[in-house]
Amino acid sequence: MQTDFWLERWEQNQIGFHEKEVNDHLINFWGALNILPESKVFVPFCGKSRDMLWLLAQGYEVLGVELSPIAVKSFFSENDLEPRITNHGDFQRWEAEGVSIYLGNFFDLNAEDLIDCSAVYDRASLIALPPDMRQRYVDHLRTIAHVISQTLLVTLEYDQSEMQGPPFSVNKNEIYKMFGEGCDVECLLEENALDKNDHFIQKGLTCLLESVYLLNKR
Ligand SMILES: C[S@@+](CC[C@H](N)C(=O)[O-])C[C@H]1O[C@@H](n2cnc3c(N)ncnc32)[C@H](O)[C@@H]1O
């Protein structure tokens, strides 16, 4: 999946993935993580997700990375946050009280950029990527986030022949294969999500599972 694809999605306002409300799974399952109250949470492929505001409201610091300048700008303006913008290597860093977003490519981040993060929240990030890029994403995350001990991961699973991604289908076996070597993988929830995703029914899906995983670094 080329970066241009995502930049165009934002330019054309084709952002069906963006949720108007905070994600239920974040609210329901964040408590399964065991991190200190004021920890910093890394949100890869953050878009302009309101989930970052929820994390902030819980007292965490948030560090996102996002490719699209439209997404980053919108996150700050739509939430009445006044950004301080500085250059940071290959990135622009947009910051307000408690929240920073690196504007640029996730694959250009290095371990130092995430040095003080304690947890990862991945909703619609891994599943935004086609199969050939997913292992690269996980390998890079493992490299840059080696200090991070816990991850909350939200994925979708469906018959890939019924619909083209993104979002892509990522099944349980793949999750265990990709993360199982260095992490204990616990599936916290697996539920039918077709009813609440009419637009996927219209695209031809007959079955859709949403899963929530807790990854604990060994
Ligand atoms: C499916 S959206 C999910 C956004 C967000 N996690 C949410 O829940 O709304 C994927 C996002 O990742 C961004 N993205 C894709 N590839 C990226 C990359 N290599 N580096 C940083 N952001 C990327 C896209 O611009 C898009 O906003």
Blueprint (SSEs and pairs):
Blueprint: H1 3-11, H2 24-29, E1 40-44, H3 51-57, E2 61-66, H4 69-78, E3 84-88, E4 91-96, E5 99-103, E6 117-123, H5 131-144, E7 150-157, H6 172-179, E8 183-192, H7 198-202, E9 209-217
Parallel strand pairs: 1-2, 1-6, 2-5, 6-7
Antiparallel strand pairs: 3-4, 4-5, 7-9, 8-9
Structure, briefly:
This protein is α/β, with parallel strands linked by helices. The protein has 7 helices and 9 strands. The protein has a 9-stranded mixed beta sheet with strand order 3-4-5-2-1-6-7-9-8, sandwiched between helices.
Walkthrough of the structure:
With 218 residues, the protein is α/β, with parallel strands linked by helices. Helices cover 27% and strands 28% of the residues. It has seven helices and nine strands; from the N terminus they run ααβαβαββββαβαβαβ. A hairpin with a 2-residue loop joins strand 4 and strand 5 (99-103). The radius of gyration is 16 Å and the shape is globular. The structure holds S-adenosylmethionine. S-adenosylmethionine is lined by residues 3, 6, 17-18, 45-47, 49, 65-68, 71, 105-107, 123-125, 128, 166. The site of S-adenosylmethionine has 21 residues, from helix 1 and strand 2.
Provide key terms for this protein.
7 helices, 218 residues, alpha/beta, nine-stranded mixed beta sheet, binds S-adenosylmethionine
